[in-house]
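Risk register update: the risk of archive-format incompatibility is retired. Evidence:
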Amino acid sequence: MTSANLSSININRLLPDWPLVIWLIVIALSLGLLNGMEANELVSTFNRGWGYALGEFALILLPSFTLSAVLSRKTVGDASLLAAFTSPVAGAGMICPDTAYAALSPVAGRRKLIVAMGAYSGFKLLFPAGPLIVATGLGATDPSLLIYGLVFLFPVWAAGILWVNFKYKPISSENASPPDIKGDLSALVALFPFGLLFGLLILGWMVDFTSFPAVDFFTTPKGALILSAAFALASIASDKRRECLEEAIRRSALLLFIIGAASAFGAILTTSLDAQNLLPAVDGALGIIGLFTLTAMFKLMQGSSMATFAAISPVTAPIVAASTLPPASAVFAICLGSFIAIFPNDSYYWLVRKDALATSTENKSIKILAGGAILQALFGLLMLLALYISGLI
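Archived output:
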């Protein structure tokens, strides 16, 4: 047995195999006690942190998972090209690259890896996913996030596509069926709620509806999500609607619990430590690189993209507040850092590995998925730094 294996066994014996949320609670309470917090102060800080922005997250997650549940119950034909083009929108609208890939994979054909990279990119860079979740956690409001997300999306997605096409050649089929136009149309109809969502967001960004409160609400990210989810729910049979809502509640409840624990952890951490010492610099290009690196470290440790967003925002919120970085720069530094990387500790790795890469070896699958995600992250970081230095963000 190698020393590496012995080390791994010793670590596994020393550390309990607990879920992330339990570790967050235990470490948060331990930090508070080690920092000499009195019992009332510890509980009140934990309480305050747990409730931080939880209502806002509920308004994001419930309608998003409702959209996801509805789409998973729709039947579409072979629409590989449409699946590829709509994968970023699905990844963002469902607030979950796993669900978006699972929903689109059956119609993706030979473009499954393109769909995988698209769903992953859309979840990280487009409303109402990565940018909205991170901005909510940071307490930042900037309508330009919607536009910047689109600016980053296509080059970053293209970097991933180039990588997977370079590293992986799918087995060709001489009997491959021609494109199914009927399938394309059915998929287009199924994905219409996402088009409605983006249309409402763009309308709200272009027009000031403050004189019409109801219209103003439904052209904000949370209101547009609710309206799009309601439209999607109305498009399926009435006997399926309750189960879609119950599925959305179950999935939201788990994530809200994780977000609550992560927020409480962040509140106690920032009370116990000087937030300024978590990063070598909080301003300028070095601040962007620092936020990117810190987020990448969280992602490598946790695997889950959503858990990374939930945990990193409360920790970085005071750092960003103390800096002079524009909100959009901070938000996308975190979003891009979360690309690193699609490793086996990420559920998304196994979903794509067992489907699109079923004929590949484990080593090759890691090179394809992790390598593609890392390339996307670094390319996006270079774009962000160029935009920041030139004063465009």
